[in-house]
Amino acid sequence: MPPNRPRPLPPFIPGLLLLLLLAVAPPPAASAVGVNWGFASSHPLPAVQVVQGLLLPNSVPRVRLSAASSDALAALAGTGIAVTIGVPDALLRPLAASTKAAASWVHDNVTRYASSVRFEYIAVGDEAFLLRHGQNFQPFVVRAAENIQQALVHAKLASKMKVVVPCSTETFQNASTLPSKASFRPDVNKTMSDLLSFLSNSSSPFMVELDPFFSFQHNKNLSLDYYLFQLMSHPVKDGQNKYDNYVDASLDALAASLTKAGFSDMDIIVGRAGWPTDGAVNATPAIAQSFMTGLVNHLAKKSGTPLRPKVHPVETYLFSLLDEDQRSTASGGYERHHGIFTFDGQAKYYANIGQGPKSLKNIPDVNFLPSKWCVVDNNKDLSNVSSSFSSACSNGDCTSLLPGGSCSGLAWPGNVSYAFNNYYQQHDQSEDSCNFNGLGLITTVDPSVDNCLFPLAIRTSAATYLHLTLAMLRLLVLGFAVFLFIV
Questions:
Q1: What is the pLDDT confidence band of residue 463, given thresholds at 50, 70 and 90?
Q2: 237 forms bridges with which residues in the sheet?
Q3: End-to-end CA separation in angstroms for the chain
Q4: Which of 93, 221, 230, 278 is the most buried (most CB within 10 A)?
Q5: Catalytic pick among 127, 209, 315, 335
Q6: Shortest CA distance to 30 belongs to which of 295, 290, 212, 306?
């Protein structure tokens, strides 16, 4: 937001208490911790500004890109930041169908940058095993990974990076909360066997995606303290083992599943772990800070888990760097509010992403659109405003209005104004995007109320999305051509 706009202060630890805590236990080095950087935003910050204004000033050692972005890769060149690059689910079918498509993807997104970008992993798929995806992606993920690996070998890059496949905790099932009882779902057993063999043969780790907030919402018998690494008087007992936090229990559920599948020694990477700050009850900056601080401190102990003592995840990627107003809300509206930073690069709370005990540095000099907002015109007949409200929310982002959200306290018609403005900003403040059948009104008076901020969009170009879209389009066309040839 522009600097003259009020912003809710992030939670903080009183100075004396913070000094005492640091004296007893200095903040751990975050060398094995990185951040996720996604691009599902209507008005993204320029990639070079994210790298130069967030990643480097905050000493972020590694980053996981949700997809191949030429802007992001060019900005990361020469920085020394370790990079994991993602392959979206939409590309799995064409990459699985054609070694030529895989070679093209590797050439365009890896080989071109390999001399200046420090690649670590290629993450094939984006939780392709989610139950809601059914068979849309699962049948293609292993072959796609194999073809990417083959392309790396041909490009003489296989020794410099590894191929991994992100898997959600839904990949393994557990009828109870006991980690030792977990195993891979029966419907993915064959695919999982092929995947584990592939990972083992290439000495690659298993990448698991943790979603503590989703788990918290669906496990009413587990307390919030369990998810925030708070000392529990009644930990979960699993035989001789005791679990006082969600992360250790999840990692051991995976470890048990791997052991039952015959891969007990496979390394683990946590590809995602975070907590939202808006869009739901208990999604707040204060709770997110507690989770992130607990997670990073817990990982720094390198104590491992009850089933794997002294064995810790190879790497852990915090979720995520920035808010993304176009992420899928299939799991919940809170998915768009996982950022440690707001969409415009301002820290919402303290988290050690590499900078240690120092406060996070924000992106300076963000280029916003003019200070104009769209609100409902109270002088008009609002008896039929509901349809305009629904239309604005369907084509914009109203997740902050959800119960527990930062704007959930807005009364009618304030909530309508919030929806109108969000649509207006996402459409670059074009005059016709504030029409709403004559019920909208453009104002230069900031309508924000307390912690409910009416956003102003960033002035941006479509370059990043053109690069992402064109690259995906080329592969989809190539994959379709291969499919027609096979048929």
A1: very low
A2: 242
A3: 53
A4: 278
A5: 127
A6: 295
Unique residue bearing structure tokens 């995976």: 254
pLDDT in tens, 93-131: 999 999 999 999 999 999 999 999 999 999 999 989 998
Q: What is the DSSP annotation of 125-145? A: SSSTT-GGGTTSSHHHHHHHH
Q: Which has more pLDDT, 194 or 235?
A: 194
H/E element holding 122?
strand 118-124
Give burial (CB, 10 Å; 0-12/13-18/19+) of 105. buried
Q: Where are the beta strands (DSSP E) in 357-462?
A: 373-376, 440-443
Q: Nearest CA to 55 among 321, 288, 366, 346?
A: 321
Give residue for tokens 């007992």: 237
pLDDT at 20: 40
Sign of CA dihedral 129, 132, 134, 137: negative
- Residue 11 CA to residue 284 CA, distance in Å, equals 10
H or E element: which one contains 236? strand 236-238
Backbone φ and ψ for 16, nearest 5 degrees, come out as: -65, -45
List C-alpha distances in Å: 331 to 13, 128, 218, 344: 32, 15, 11, 24
- Domain 29-365+470-475 fold: TIM Barrel (3.20.20)
Strands (E), 251-361: 268-273, 316-318
Q: Where are the domains of the chain?
A: 29-365+470-475, 373-443
Helices (H), 160-312: 189-201, 212-218, 224-227, 246-260, 285-300
127 catalytic residue (yes or no): yes
C-alpha span between 441 and 435 (Å, rounded): 7
Q: CA distances (Å), 333 to each of 39, 279, 338, 341, 399, in order?
A: 17, 5, 10, 17, 5
Q: What is the three-state SS of 30-55?
A: CCCEEEEECCCCCCCCCHHHHHHHHH
Q: What is the pLDDT of residue 19?
A: 40
Q: Are strands 206-209 and 373-376 parallel, antiparallel or unpaired?
A: unpaired
Confidence category of residue 487, pLDDT binned at 50, 70, 90: very low
Helices H / strands E in the chain, number of each: 14, 15
Element (H, E) at 62: strand 62-65
- Any idea what the Cα angle at residue 289 is, between residues 283 and 291, rounded to 5°? 80
Question: Phi and psi (nearest 5°) for 64?
Answer: -115, 115
pLDDT at 176: 78
For residue 131, give Cα distances in angstroms to 89, 139, 298, 324.
14, 13, 30, 23
412 phi and psi, to 5 degrees?
Answer: -70, 135
Give per-residue burial for 316-328: e unless 16+ CB within 10 Å, then b.
bbbbbbbbbbbbe
